[in-house]
Amino acid sequence: MAVDVDQFSNEPIYRATVPCPQLIEDLQQLEELDALREKQQARATKVGTLTLAAGVLCLFVGFIAMDGEGVGMPLAWAGTALALVGIGAFIVRARHQRLNLENRRYQLASRLVGLLQADIAPDEPVTLELDLRPADHEDKYQNESKTRSGWNVKHYLDTWLSLQGRLLDGTHFRVEMTERTQERKRTKTNVRGKTKYQSKQKSDALLRVRLRVKPERYQHLERFGARAKGAMQLLKGTQLKDLTVEADRVDMTLHLASPWAAGEEPPPGPGSGTRPAPLNGQRVVAMALLSLYQLLNLSRALDKKAVHSRAG
Q: Does an H or E element contain 253, and which?
């Protein structure tokens, strides 16, 4: 299915159940659409800045020359026209900015589909739900609170990615990514009586990966219990928040406290300070899947060992 551009512009949410090649094609179309909007936004910014500045200058010179040789009025009218063009350009810029997407979201989705494609049948349908609305969209609002230090906090919960399907070995998988955002605002009065308005935004992410299997194929899976945590391989910057192992499924939730990117980011330049490189989102998901499959492989090994023991 091709992306309906008009519908997507009104509500930037992508939902489809199609084979992986079609998903990759659609995500490429979203990337091209977003790149076009970014160019249009940059062009509108440039036109708006130049024409508004020229308009203000013409108005200024025109008003000064009003008592002169009659050039003041034409300059004032020209300045007014240029200023109106500049304002119009900034209105167009605001519209393009509203439709500008967060690149790393559709880039990570594309990378994950590409990563899993080798283990999925070419004609096997895969379901992708991709919410590209802002993390602080009104539909994602949860509640408000206040901290001891006086911050008024709005909480948003944004489950923006859901990818699920069936692998070649029959295992059903589901990958979900959730962004938790806090918008903090407060007014603070210093000792001189001056009031200062402050605002900031904090966010982190949760990754949930689930595998559903046939219990008869993994008879020792449920017996791992708390020992299953020892098989988890986590990247630096991630923390195991929850792990559930049952007879027919394994379910892991990771907390990504550090900022993340869709893939490997280039090393920071000389003037960027000591800020660490963001987490590689594709690698985080890959390691989570490998860790869960490690549990499945251990269960299969114990199953085989039990069969050999009975046969002996």
A: strand 249-256
Cα angle, residue 155 at apex, residues 149 and 159 outer, rounded to 5°:
150
Short-list 194, 163, 186, CA closest to 176: 163
Q: What is the largest CA-CA distance in the chain?
A: 113
Q: Which of 21, 240, 253, 237 is nearest to 120 (CA)?
A: 21
Distance CA 123, CA 172 (A): 16
Cα→Cα distances 10→129, 136, 158, 255, Å: 16, 17, 19, 32
Phi, psi of 258 (to 5 degrees): -90, 155
Average pLDDT for residues 186-209, to the nearest whole number?
A: 86
pLDDT digits (tens, 9 = 90+) for 60-72: 777 776 665 566 6
38 three-class SS: helix
What is the chain's alpha carbon radius of gyration, rounded to the nearest angstrom?
Answer: 27
What is the 8-class DSSP label of residue 170?
A: S
20-64 and 103-117 helices cross at what angle (nearest 10)? Answer: 160
pLDDT digits (tens, 9 = 90+) for 145-155: 988 888 899 99
The full set of domain ranges for the chain reads 38-97, 133-266+278-311
Question: What does the DSSP assignment read for 122-155?
Answer: TT--EEEEEE-S-TT-GGGEEEEEE-TTS-EEEE
